[in-house]
Design brief:
It is a single chain. With 719 residues, the chain is an alpha/beta fold. 28% of the residues lie in helices and 20% in strands. A seven-stranded mixed β-sheet has the order 3-2-1-4-5-7-6, with helices on both faces. A seven-stranded mixed β-sheet has the order 10-9-8-11-12-14-13, with helices on both faces. Strands 17-16-15-18-22 form a five-stranded mixed β-sheet. The longest helix has 15 residues.
Length: 719
């Protein structure tokens, strides 16, 4: 049985049985003609008292109680059955009018016949396939047999596009289909474990919705699943709320209209003629319900419409169960996000890292697109077969911080596209360009509460020159700090800073680096292994410009140490954080970052100066595909601080015979003293680092003999 057939039978039940005498009398006889359980049956729709459900079919099979000898004779007396069901049968019945007449014969005077048959779809013999049905066919069938056709609708979801008919006897009492929603059944379970009930995200989803209302100024807002009305109350103009059991606890704008229906019923009745340009779906927490809501919204959508789906990021598998077991419950809406990514690549999908359970913003809607409609049933089957939720859902991999500059840029692009009535394809192309930074820089931090604010400031738009803030992202990965930094302060310095706390911290930063690279969205990805390293003002702009010189660029920088010399020497002479703070305070670096050159000395790895290939580069850049081909950083380097992992990765990148090594002139990083393993200790365990390298590589460390391309200009002296 396909999904839409079951959903149509459920609608028949809600409209004609629920709350009526056939649901409340002592016993109600239900006969399912052709009722073998083939990937499901209608039995669950009529489960429990007072229904006595019996399935008849031409062959024995799962769920079949009555095997028919003659398809045109039912072994029941006249007027003995309350409800006759017949789904996906008439197309296989050579003389379907005779079969229907027999169903009418056994029907009680106040009973119902529910017929579901395809109006389209491919040939599927069982053992024959004779017919497809259009609405006039049911009218003719009622006329021929003397039945009354109470209701008929054509379901446009494919591939079968079912025709549904509700029939009664001509002498049946008057009956009006019900619009009453199913009874509410609030969850009354006990909360799960703390892990089961965990939530994630930063900005609260209502804050994001409020901003969407403010910045997009929707002409008509539609919300599915309004609950207490907290999100619906954010509407600033005409709004429609749909919920079978709203429990409003706050005033709603006078321009708001409520419909106490299920969303299926609301849309089946024409959706009140609403053409939304902003919609929020927060309904049943089951993927097929949310899919239907999205399909209907897209079909009715005004140009430039945006749909926001709630509950796409469960924090624990228990929250993603289809049957609720936890207080925090997302259901399996994550499956819909996966379906849209696979089957609707024409849409713009923006996963947002919001509290408590994440949002998915969808733009580029195309009311003429029929992919979801025509493939509904196989798509639902495949969607429900997905295993999960996968780790990237639980970790919120690839999400956008709604406090980020990237999100600002996306909203500005969306506003402009809506104002210009850009076609869906053009709108999506613009949004994708806005959503993808050109450069990602991964910074690793460990116990750097003092140093990180300066590092992040040096990478902020206030300091970096020649690059649009929308064109880069900075990803800070904290590798298990025992002395936490002030994340709010860092985000004030660099709005949109992406912060991750690596879930499996180790003494070596290598795994955290690979994790950061995996989070990066830019085509060009840089790694700054040490969060204590401040950057010169043109680092990002020059790296981006250099990347255009070759298909496989390896873009490196040399390294400086703050203070009068290399810090492994100066710390022995008393150079410390207090001295460095005074040095920086008097340098004027925040007015001109290039002044850092005035208070720094070359690191020993860069002692060859600007025109030599350094033994390591503490901030270097490769394209994302190159990082993948390189295999990232070798996680065999487990020494504290990474040992010679940075040397190794730089060496392997420079050894690519198809790559062009490009050294940036006039740009560098500047190391702050912080008590690190390698740079700031008098007893650096270099012998252990060398032993580890030899064990992993089978030889001593040696850079390839290659001449790099020099790009840029040398720094001028600054006062």
């Amino acid at each position: 049985m396909h999904a839409s057939s079951l959903e149509n039978m459920q609608r028949c039940y809600r409209r004609h049985i629920a709350g009526g005498p056939l649901e409340t009398q002592a016993e109600t006889m239900v006969l399912d003609v052709g009722g073998a359980d083939v990937n499901g049956s209608y039995r669950d729709v009529f489960a429990g008292p007072p229904f006595r459900y019996r399935a008849a079919d031409m062959q024995a099979g799962p769920g079949v109680e009555i095997v028919l000898d003659d398809p045109y004779h039912l072994p029941f007396s006249d007027g003995s059955i309350d409800i006759v069901l017949c789904g996906q049968v008439l197309e296989h019945c050579e003389y379907f009018w005779r079969a229907f007449a027999e169903m009418l014969r056994v029907l009680r005077p106040d009973g119902f016949i529910f017929i579901i048959a395809p109006s389209s779809g491919g040939i599927h013999r069982y053992p024959v396939d004779c017919y497809r049905f259009h609405p006039d066919a049911y009218t003719a069938l009622a006329t021929l047999t003397g039945a009354s056709l109470v209701e008929c609708w054509l379901d446009e979801r494919g591939p079968w596009r079912d025709l549904v008919g509700v029939f009664r006897r001509a002498d049946a009492p008057a009956h009006t289909p019900s619009l009453a929603p199913p009874a509410a059944s609030p969850w009354q379970g006990a909360p799960g474990t703390p892990a089961d009930e965990a939530i994630g995200g930063g900005m609260h989803y209502l804050t994001v919705l409020e901003r969407l209302h403010r910045e997009l100024s929707p002409a008509h807002y539609l919300e599915i699943g309004i609950r207490q009305g907290h999100s619906l109350a954010l509407a600033t103009g005409p709004a429609t709320g749909v919920d079978p059991h709203p429990v409003i606890d706050r005033p709603l704008p006078a321009t708001t209209t409520l419909y106490p229906f299920t969303s299926d019923e609301f849309f089946a009745l024409g959706g009140a003629g609403v053409r939304p340009d902003l919609a929020f779906v927060d309904g049943m927490h089951l993927c097929e319900f949310a899919l239907r809501d999205f399909m209907h919204i897209e079909r009715a959508a005004a140009p430039g419409a945006v749909v926001v789906l709630d509950d796409v990021f469960p924090a624990h598998p228990a929250q993603a169960a289809r049957d609720r077991h936890t207080q925090v419950w997302t259901g399996d809406i994550w499956r819909l996000a996966a379906l849209l990514r696979q089957h609707r690549p024409d849409l713009f999908l923006l996963p947002l890292d919001t509290s408590p359970t994440g949002l998915l913003l969808v733009a580029g809607l195309d009311p003429a697109n029929r992919v979801l409609w025509d493939g509904y049933n196989p798509l639902v089957r495949d969607m429900l077969a997905l295993e999960g939720p996968p780790p990237e859902i639980l970790s919120r991999h690839g999400t956008i911080d709604p406090a980020s500059v990237t999100f600002d840029h996306i909203l500005a692009t969306l506003r402009q596209a809506r104002a210009e009535a850009a076609p869906p394809g053009e709108c999506v192309a613009r949004l994708r360009r806005a959503a993808t930074p050109k450069v990602s820089l991964v910074v690793i931090g460990y116990n750097m509460a003092r140093e990180l604010p300066r590092t992040i400031r040096s990478l902020s738009p206030a300091m970096q020159r020649g690059i649009d803030p929308h064109d880069y992202e900075v990803i800070l990965v904290d590798n298990g700090s025992t002395e936490p930094f002030d994340a709010a302060e860092l985000r004030r310095i660099l709005p949109g800073l992406v912060i991750h706390h690596f879930p499996e911290p180790t003494a070596s930063p290598v795994k955290a680096i690979n994790f950061g690279i995996a989070q990066a969205r830019g085509d060009l990805i840089g790694v700054c292994v040490d969060g204590a390293r401040m950057a010169s003002p043109g680092l990002l702009a020059r790296a981006l410009a250099a990347s255009r010189l070759h298909q496989r660029p390896v873009i490196g920088t040399i390294a400086f140490h703050l203070g009068p010399g290399a810090q492994m020497d100066t710390v022995k002479a008393g150079y410390d954080q207090r001295a460095e703070d005074a040095l920086l305070a008097g340098s004027g670096w925040e007015d001109d970052g290039y002044r850092l050159f005035n208070i720094a000395a070359l690191a020993k790895s860069s002692e060859g100066g600007w025109f030599a290939l350094p033994r390591e580069s503490n901030a270097f850049f490769l394209r994302a595909a190159q990082w993948h081909a390189l295999g990232g950083w070798d996680e065999g380097f487990t020494s504290p601080g990474g040992g010679l992992a940075s040397h190794d990765t730089w060496c392997r990148a420079c050894s690519d015979p198809h790559a062009e090594i490009i050294m940036l002139l006039g740009e560098a990083t500047f190391h702050q003293v912080h008590g690190g393993i390698a740079t700031n200790r008098a007893d650096t365990p270099m012998a252990d680092f060398v032993d580890e390298y030899v064990r992993l590589r089978g030889r001593g460390f040696e850079m390839p003999a290659r001449r790099p391309l020099q790009f840029g200009t040398l720094p001028a002296a600054t006062g």
